[in-house]
Amino acid sequence: QVQLVESGGGLVQAGGSLRLSCAASGSIFSINAMGWYRQAPGKQRELVANIISGNNINYSDSAKGRFTISRDNAKNTVYLQMNSLKPEDTAVYYCNADLLTTARVYLNSWGQGTQVTVSS
């Protein structure tokens, strides 16, 4: 069993900052990639940022220059520092991980989501 537990969402005014955290736990042998997606009401889930194999970082165009993703491999945790937040950043943010379990099974796992609301 693998769990991803997110924290750090909330309500913030436009221009403010939030830091999301996601900790992976359970029968994990290794993690290839961790990242953040978001889904706004009536829209498809989209990639915000991810880290692949520890040093390959990708950002969506909307996240570039405002958001920073980082990872603590020792803690199996990924962070998303979000600055200069805009109302259009309002969404449920989901953590995602591509990992290998201790049973040597490849798994793509999702967290339960954390709400981020940016008021204008």
Would you spell out the secondary-structure blueprint of this structure?
Blueprint: E1 2-7, E2 10-13, E3 18-26, E4 28-39, E5 46-52, E6 56-59, E7 67-72, E8 77-82, E9 91-101, E10 106-110, E11 114-119
Parallel strand pairs: 2-11
Antiparallel strand pairs: 1-3, 3-8, 4-5, 4-9, 5-6, 7-8, 9-10, 9-11
Description:
Helices cover 0% and strands 63% of the residues. The protein has 120 residues and is mostly beta strands. The strands form two sheets. Strands 2, 4, 5, 6, 9, 10 and 11 form a seven-stranded mixed beta sheet that branches. It has a four-stranded antiparallel beta sheet with strand order 1-3-8-7, with no helix packed on it. Strand 7 and strand 8 (77-82) form a beta hairpin.
In a few lines, what is going on in this structure?
The protein has 120 residues and is mainly beta. The chain has no helices and eleven strands. The relative contact order is 0.33.
